[in-house]
Design brief:
The structure is a single chain. By secondary structure, the chain is mainly alpha-helical. It has one domain. Helices cover about 40% and strands about 5% of the residues. Helix 2 runs parallel beside helix 6 (about 120-130). The longest helix has 12 residues, at about 120-130. The chain starts with 8 loop residues before the first helix and ends with a helix.
Length: about 130
């Protein structure tokens, strides 16, 4: 890896391309908080976005926005398929978008505060009982 970003074959050929010119890895802030809250114990944990794509925000590819409800609903088949493969796995909804997606599928799950926009401490406190032990 030599200090730079590892280039994956699918990430360098059209239609795919890097979204940053920064040669160092860019860590997504919410993801960093979530992985940190897992305390180095990610065994048995699957993290999956309720909306599996990246809706760009007004500032371009490195920004995002919450998907509108019709867009979320139109892509629920991806989440539904994943959940069908997980059997009796315990599901936690991180944020209201995840809660809404699960609700559209007729599922209920404990809702944790999303770590973005000042929610990191609350998220960590809510997640802790689920990963203890």
């Amino acid at each position: 890896m030599g200090g730079g970003r590892e280039q994956l074959p699918w990430a360098v050929a059209p239609p795919y391309r890097a979204t940053s010119r920064n040669p160092a890895l860019w860590l997504e802030p919410s993801g960093t908080i979530v992985w940190g809250a897992l305390g180095g114990r990610p065994a048995g944990v699957l993290l999956w976005n309720a909306f599996p794509w990246h809706p760009w925000g007004a500032r371009g590819p490195l920004s995002n926005h919450a998907p509108e409800r019709p867009l979320l609903a139109a892509n629920l088949h991806v989440l539904e398929r994943l959940l069908s493969e997980l059997g009796g796995a315990r599901i936690l909804a991180v944020g209201r978008t995840a809660q809404a997606a699960l609700s559209l599928l007729g599922l209920e799950a404990p809702v944790l505060r999303h770590p973005a926009h000042g929610g990191a401490a609350i998220f960590r406190a809510q997640l802790a009982p689920h990963v203890a032990g």
